[in-house]
Structures are given as structure tokens and as C-alpha cells.
Design a protein that fits this description.
By secondary structure, the protein is α/β, with parallel strands linked by helices. The protein folds into four domains: 112 residues, LysM domain (Membrane-bound Lytic Murein Transglycosylase D, Chain A, Roll), CATH 3.10.350.10; 94 residues, Membrane-bound Lytic Murein Transglycosylase D, Chain A (Roll); 203 residues, Rossmann fold (3-Layer(aba) Sandwich); 133 residues, Rossmann fold (3-Layer(aba) Sandwich), CATH 3.40.50. Helices cover 39% and strands 16% of the residues. The chain contains 22 helices and 20 strands. A seven-stranded mixed β-sheet has the order 8-7-9-10-11-18-17, sandwiched between helices. A seven-stranded mixed β-sheet has the order 13-12-14-15-16-19-20, with helices on both faces. Helix 19 links the parallel strand 15 and strand 16.
Length: 630
């Protein structure tokens, strides 16, 4: 048995050592994990699989933390000595900025211009060019080989006027021949010399063989420069040599990052009339469905935004296209000539359509606003995409940060629905609580958990947060009366108690509004409309007056979503023109429903919306939207 055990142990050690050696020999670069990133999003950024990352980073399949450095396999074409820079890489690759490296240094290492590197990394600037950041190094373009051909018919006028081009050439390789001439029948020395404006003697001196024989049909003659031209070329050569000596002796001035980025900064252009396209599955020829009604409402909100902007003097040329269902293709729409003239596109909805529109945006440089989809892989590699609906991992990381900002010293009591598994939000929040050494308890969300059970777990030293592990209304309905009893029973005691919930709670207000106030309820969201505010009331009235109907009570409200998105992006395009990407964070817009806070996912990718705010129903019957960014 011992012998068998030792054999198995030896095999395991060898296998582990082999895997470790392979990992060490494999070329990789370092990625520093930032807030909201998970293995999925990181793998999409770099075009690798999650398994590739796990293989080089054992344990990352369990958890990765902000600030942690991960080894990412270098899958792009690269040189054998990429990490030591002993050879230059000719293919596209990723590079982690090291201590002491500058943009100029990267141009030297990879033989590229600063503009080529910055074009591949639109989000790169002097401010964020820092140690640990990853940038794309584009493929080095192969030099174009000039094509040579022998002209059978000379062009004397073009040849005589070529002095400007000749002066730009490298004069070190100076030649006495201005051009060549192919001898044809009935031509003689006199005729050829007159054609090129030279003397017969100059032609013969350039072709000494003519002193001993006659011209031959088909032979190629050297057509010399005139003496004046030769003197001019000789003077230019001497001047070039002197300048070269000065350059060799002059001290080398290495430009700073600030200098290089300032030099590359393009002057933004204003857009007099914004050309915008809407691509939505309106499916007006089909029978009316719930999804169709949402899209129609969204479009109606867009039209109200255009009306508001036009009253402010913003000129907009809107094109609307019906994308059809998910089984169709929108390539015929994208192929329309006018589509290449658009400044931005809002939509589409279906995943396959988003892929097609993303490829189109990447080719044309047109901004693509994706309003609904939460998972848009192209945003990690396409710099022209704006994803409105935040990816889940980024969204939850913002929720955690805001949670601990609002409740720095909580005691969290989770109420677990036995019929529901914990979702990613709850799992992540529990990890954060453990990591921060904050106490939390899990109770069952059923009648077995009564008032006294909850009272036994309250903490007078901390803010007690009650939280359901499911956003569904069923378990909340069961626990709400018990929560009310707990609050009433502790009214005279020194207990700080609040209920923390989900975005879906805003549609439960019809049944629980009074209870929400009594229990001091908070919920997180990126979409919320306070119907009591004047701006919201005015919009509902305008919608009712324009379309003779009420806005459907959904989460979110699609008419307001369409208004917010269209108004925000069209106004930004109007204010900033072609500089919108660099100044989108300056937009000062108070939305009716949709929060906006766009940040690039990396230097070569697009933008995601990271806006999260809390809605608070306080015990003094105040309804407050807490915006952490104002």
C-alpha cells in the first residue's frame, strides 16, 4: 500500500511540476484587477478563455480581488523575447507598462509611432499612462516595396518639373542620370538631346559608348542632368551632409508623455446637424405583443427628446429602421448609403443584431448606443460602443461600494428563501462582509422566523440591515408584517433598523408603500422615476397629451428610458462634437429615470454605464434619491 501511495504521490508531483514549468515558460503579461472585473470580462478583453487565465493563476476560479495581478497568456503574434524586448514584435500584442516606461520608450521598443499606439488605445492619455496599465501594441506595418517599371515613352515636361520631388529624395545616392530613354526608329543624337533640353556633347558624355558607334534601336540611354542642375544637386548634398553632422552631435531630447499626448491631440469639430439612426424591433406588421409595445414606447420617448432638443436649437436628422425579429439580419439596413454618414446609432436589441452593428461601428467609427442588453462582449474590444445597461459584475461592485459608503458599520441579517438559491449579488455581498470582518446572520424567510428570533440578533452598536436573499415578492410579503412588528417593538429602544432591497421594490410600492416608510427602506437601482417630482409630472402630461395614453407601469418605464438616452447622447454630441468620447463625463444632465456614468472598460474598449443610486423611504415619510456622485 505504501509503495502504491508513493507512486501516486510521485506522479502527482511530476504532473504539477510539469504544469508549473509550462506556465513559467509560457509568455504572459500582467493584468491588475479593477472594480467590477471578473474572469469573464477579463477573458473577453484579451481574447482568451477563462480556463487560460485559471491555468496561469491557480485559485482564481474561486475568487479574484481588486488590485490583484493576474498572468494573462500572450495570445497575440509576438517575438520570442517579447518580455526582454531583445526583438521587436511584428504582430499585435498586449503590453503592461513597467516602472520608468514612457510612451516614447514604447515607440522605441516596438518601432512604432506614438500616433499608431494611441490610435490603438483611444482611452490612453498622459493622466492614465501609469505603471501596471495594459495597452494594445498594434501590428507593425510592413514597409511598402516600390514597384519599378521602365517607361517606353518619356514625358519631358514631367521630367523637367521633377526637381521638387528629387530634392526630397536621399541625395547621398546621387546619380548623373536624370532619366532613361528607350531609342526608337529614326531617332538620332540631335533629336534626343533637343527633346530633353541638353546639348549633344552632354548626351554623349553621359553615354561614352556613342563615341565609338552609332545609336541602336531598342538601347537605353542615360539622360543626364544639365550642368546647372548638377551644381544644384551637389550643393544640396553638401547641405544634407552638414545637417546630418549637426544632428549627430546635437543632444537627444526625449519628449515627455505630456508633450507627446499634447502633440497628438486633435482639434475637435462641431457638428452642425446630428445624423442619428434608431434600429429597433418595432415589427409593426406583426400582431401587437408586450415586447413590441415596449419598443414603441421607447421610440415615442425618443421623439419627445428630439422635440425638446429642437426647441433648444439642436438640429437632428433622425432615421428609423425596423430590425425585425432575432432571426433576421440587419446587414441590409447597415448597407444603406446613408448609414455611413451617421454620427450615432441607438439600438439594436437582439444579440445577433448587436454583433452586426458592433462590427459596422468598429469599421466606420460611428458611436453605437446599446440601450437594453446587459451582456455585450464587444464593449471590451470596440472603442465606439456605449453600453447603457451595466454588466452584472460591474453593477454589483458599484452596489457594494455604495452600500458600505451608506452603512459603514452594519449588522446584516439575511432572510433566506428556502425555495430560492442565493444569486451572485448575495454571494458577493457575503464575501465582502467576511472580508471586511463585518458580522452577518442568515435566518429563514418563513413563519418559523418570528419577531423574537429577529430581536435576538439585533445589535445596538450597529446599523441593523434586514435583507431578503430573493427579489421576488412572495417571501417579502411573508416577512413584511414581521418586520413591522420588530420596528414597532424597538421604537423606544436604541436600535437602528433598515430594510435593504432590490430595484424590483419600486414596482411593489402599490402594496407596501406605507410599510417601506415605516421600516426605513432602501433599494439600489440605476433606473428610478419619482412620479411626485415636477419634471416627472410634466413628462407624463406631455406624453399623455401627445399620444393620448398613459405610460405603462413597468420597470423601467420605456418611454422615459427612450427620452433619457436620446436626450443625453444627442445633447452630448451637440455640445462636444467629435470630442464627445473625451468629455462625456462633463455632461450635466438630471435624468428623469436613467442614471448615467460612463467609463471606458480599458484603453482600447468602449464605455459602460456604472451609475448606481439608492432610493430611500424614510420614517418621516420623505422619498429621497441618493446620488453618490453629486
Amino acid at each position: 500500500m505504501n509503495r502504491l501511495f508513493r507512486r501516486i504521490l510521485t506522479i502527482l508531483i511530476l504532473a504539477t511540476s510539469t504544469q508549473w514549468a509550462m506556465a513559467q515558460s509560457e509568455s504572459y503579461f500582467l493584468h491588475t484587477v479593477t472594480k467590477g472585473q471578473g474572469l469573464y470580462s477579463i477573458s473577453r478583453m484579451y481574447g482568451v478563455t477563462e480556463a487560460d487565465i485559471i491555468r496561469l493563476n491557480p485559485g482564481s476560479e474561486t475568487v479574484i480581488k481588486v488590485g490583484e495581478q493576474l498572468r494573462i497568456p500572450q495570445t497575440k503574434q509576438e517575438s520570442t523575447h517579447a518580455d526582454t524586448h531583445q526583438e521587436q514584435s511584428s504582430g499585435e500584442r498586449f503590453h503592461t507598462i513597467k516602472v520608468g516606461e514612457t510612451l516614447y520608450r514604447l515607440t522605441v521598443i516596438y518601432g512604432l509611432t506614438a500616433r499608431e499606439i494611441c490610435n490603438a488605445n483611444p482611452g490612453l492619455s498622459a493622466e492614465n499612462f501609469k505603471v501596471g496599465q495594459v495597452v494594445v501594441i498594434p501590428a507593425k506595418k510592413e514597409p511598402q516595396q516600390p514597384t519599378q517599371s521602365i517607361a517606353t515613352e518619356p514625358n519631358p515636361i514631367a521630367t523637367q518639373n521633377a526637381s521638387t520631388t528629387e530634392e526630397l529624395a536621399d541625395l547621398e545616392e546621387i546619380s548623373n542620370c536624370r532619366t532613361e530613354h528607350l531609342v526608337k526608329r529614326r531617332e538620332n543624337i540631335y533629336r534626343i538631346s533637343r527633346t530633353y533640353g541638353i546639348t549633344e556633347l552632354e548626351l554623349v558624355e553621359a553615354n561614352p559608348e556613342l563615341r565609338k558607334r552609332k545609336l541602336k534601336v531598342g538601347e537605353i540611354l542615360c539622360i543626364p542632368y544639365t550642368k546647372a542642375e548638377q551644381e544644384k544637386r551637389q550643393a544640396a548634398l553638401e547641405e544634407q551632409q552638414q545637417n546630418k553632422k549637426k544632428e549627430e552631435t546635437a543632444p537627444i531630447v526625449v519628449p515627455t508623455d505630456e508633450d507627446l499626448f499634447a502633440e497628438l491631440r486633435t482639434i475637435p469639430e462641431d457638428i452642425e446637424q446630428i445624423k442619428a439612426a434608431i434600429i429597433l424591433p418595432l415589427m409593426l406588421d406583426d400582431s401587437i405583443s408586450s415586447d413590441q409595445m415596449k419598443m414603441v414606447e421607447f421610440y415615442e420617448g425618443v421623439l419627445l427628446a428630439l422635440d425638446s432638443l429642437k426647441k433648444q436649437g439642436v438640429s437632428i436628422d433622425l432615421h428609423v429602421y425596423d430590425s425585425g425579429d432575432k432571426n433576421t439580419s440587419i446587414r441590409p439596413i447597415l448597407a444603406k448609403p446613408e448609414m455611413r454618414e451617421m454620427n450615432l446609432i441607438i439600438g439594436p436589441v437582439h444579440d445577433s443584431h448587436i454583433d452586426e452593428a458592433s462590427a459596422f461601428a468598429d469599421t466606420t467609427g460611428i458611436r453605437l448606443i446599446v440601450p437594453f442588453a446587459r451582456q455585450v462582449d464587444a464593449v471590451f474590444t470596440n472603442p465606439y460602443i456605449y453600453q447603457v445597461n451595466t454588466p452584472q459584475s460591474y453593477f454589483y461592485s458599484e452596489v457594494y461600494e455604495r452600500f458600505f459608503t451608506k452603512f459603514p458599520c452594519p449588522k446584516v441579517i439575511f432572510f433566506d428563501d428556502p425555495e430560492e438559491e442565493d444569486d451572485d449579488l448575495i454571494d458577493g455581498l457575503k464575501r465582502e462582509l467576511t472580508y471586511r470582518d463585518i458580522p452577518h446572520t442568515v435566518l429563514m424567510a418563513d413563519t418559523a422566523t418570528n419577531k423574537d428570533t429577529i430581536l435576538a440578533h439585533l445589535d445596538t452598536e450597529r446599523h441593523n440591515i434586514l435583507m431578503m436573499t430573493s427579489e421576488k415578492s412572495g417571501s417579502l410579503n411573508n416577512m413584511m408584517p414581521i418586520f413591522q412588528l420588530v420596528v414597532r417593538d424597538t421604537a423606544s429602544a436604541k436600535y437602528d433598523i433598515s430594510l435593504f432591497g432590490y430595484p424590483q421594490y419600486q414596482v411593489y410600492t402599490n402594496n407596501h408603500l406605507a410599510s417601506f416608510y415605516e421600516i426605513d427602506t432602501y433599494f439600489y437601482t440605476s433606473f428610478y422615476t419619482n412620479n411626485l417630482l415636477p419634471a416627472s409630472k410634466a413628462f407624463h402630461q406631455k406624453y399623455r397629451r401627445t399620444y393620448s395614453k398613459e405610460i405603462a407601469n413597468r420597470y423601467p418605464k420605456y418611454a422615459i428610458l427612450g427620452f433619457d438616452i436620446a436626450y443625453y447622447f444627442l445633447k452630448a454630441m451637440h455640445l462636444y462634437g467629435t470630442d464627445m468620447d473625451n468629455r462625456i463625463h462633463e455632461m450635466d444632465y438630471t435624468p428623469l429615470q436613467t442614471g448615467f456614468k460612463f467609463e471606458r472598460v480599458n484603453h482600447w474598449g468602449g464605455f459602460i454605464n456604472r451609475k448606481v443610486f439608492f432610493v430611500h423611504f424614510s420614517r418621516d415619510y420623505q422619498l429621497q434619491t441618493i446620488d453618490f456622485d453629486r
